[in-house]
Design brief:
Blueprint: H1 4-32, H2 36-55, H3 65-92, E1 97-98, E2 104-107, H4 113-116, E3 124-127, H5 131-147, H6 153-165, H7 172-200
Antiparallel strand pairs: 1-2, 2-3
Helix pairs in contact: 1-2, 1-3, 2-3, 2-7, 3-5, 3-7, 5-6, 5-7
Length: 201
């Protein structure tokens, strides 16, 4: 006799590995060739992986855990950046100019009377520099914290990032970009980590 639960778990496990591998492959493509379509496909594959992981009645075979962890970390690292970029484009369009160090260019605080009156444009400065590298580190730490069963560490990650960026968040454009980009990046990393956490529970 067939054990339907075992059959269902086997199908869910296979679908989980395939969908997470697919999300990983598309995330790498989206990272190398940023396109909103690739991000949506990767998000769909990641959602399928989440559903498969939550459908398992027993933990996935221990031999698959390292593979799932590696795939989830790759999805988080490579997919998070284009996902955050897509969220920023949807929310803000192209209202800010990119800087040469990965940040954005905003007008400096007016210091002369002419600048205050709008007669002369205030010089521009680059803020939120190094966002790409910070985002990668943030997603590795977030995914790792969830996989390890210590989600409380996410509060520390957000606090460290917020303190580090505090002096740059005076301008509205910088604040909005920081909040939207951080939330999109964290949600993506949390979803990737949650796949492994649910599968190995």
């Amino acid at each position: 006799m067939f054990d339907l639960t075992t059959v269902a778990d086997t199908i869910a496990s296979i679908a989980l590995v395939i969908s997470l591998a697919g999300a990983c492959a598309i995330s790498v493509i989206a990272y190398l060739r940023p396109r909103a379509l690739f991000v949506w496909i990767a998000a769909g594959s990641l959602a399928i992986a989440l559903m498969c992981a939550s459908a398992l009645s027993t933990p996935i075979a221990s031999g698959f855990a390292p593979l799932l962890t590696a795939l989830a970390l790759a999805v988080a690292v490579f997919g998070g950046s284009p996902a955050a970029g897509t969220a920023l484009r949807l929310a803000m369009g192209t209202s800010v100019s990119p800087g040469i160090h990965g940040g954005i260019l905003i007008a400096s605080k007016p210091v002369t009377d002419a600048e205050r009156q709008g007669l002369v444009a205030a010089p521009r400065q680059e803020v939120l520099r190094g966002g790409l590298v910070i985002g990668i580190l943030e997603r590795i730490a977030t995914t790792g914290a969830i996989v390890a069963g210590f989600p409380e560490a996410i509060a520390i990650i957000v606090a460290v990032k917020g303190v580090g960026r505090f002096t740059e968040l005076e301008a509205a454009e910088a604040r909005e970009r920081f909040i939207i980009g951080t939330l999109a990046s964290l949600i993506w990393a949390c979803a990737a980590g949650l796949v492994v956490h649910l599968a190995a529970r």
